[in-house]
Amino acid sequence: MELEIFIKETLVQVSNGIKSANEDLAPERKKEDGTNLPKLFLLSPGKNQDLGSGIHFDVAVTTKTNDEGGGGAKVKLAIFEADLGGKLKSSGQAVSRIQFSINVNQWHG
Q1: Span 56-100, pLDDT tens digits
Q2: So where are the chain's domains?
Q3: DSSP of 36-85
Q4: How far is CA 40 from CA 30, 43, 51, 83, 85, in A?
Q5: 93 Rama sector, left if φ>0, alpha if ψ -120 to 50, beta otherwise
């Protein structure tokens, strides 16, 4: 999986997950007078992990080279990768870690 796609899908799924959880719980979150209680889950603005804000990534990226024609290197997100088949090949692999935080611009939920 490409890093760009992983980041995009993660951010969209986090956002949709928070919204969906709040929507599913809304019917149960009523005061005695029938008015709604505040949303249960919120993503707070900012990017300070110590304050519980932002979305933080710690990603392993692998660079893999194979000696099967074509040369070059292949960069993949180290989520899971498996090769199946009976071919013999040699390869080298380097792993780098990338840590970064995404600033959340406003309260979300």
Answers
A1: 999 888 777 665 555 555 555 554 444 455 554 555 778 888 899
A2: 3-102
A3: BPPPS--BPSB--GGGT-SEEEEEEEEEEEESSSS--EEEEETT-----S
A4: 12, 10, 18, 43, 49
A5: beta
Whether 95 contacts 60, CB under 8 Å:
yes
- Cβ pair 7, 65 in contact under 8 A: no
Tell if the pTM clears 0.90, that is, is over it: no
Element (H or E) spanning 11, and its range?
helix 3-25
Query: CA-CA distance, 28 to 17, in Å (whole number)?
Result: 18
- Beta-carbon count within 10 A of 57 CB: 14
| CB count in 10 Å sphere of residue 58 | 9
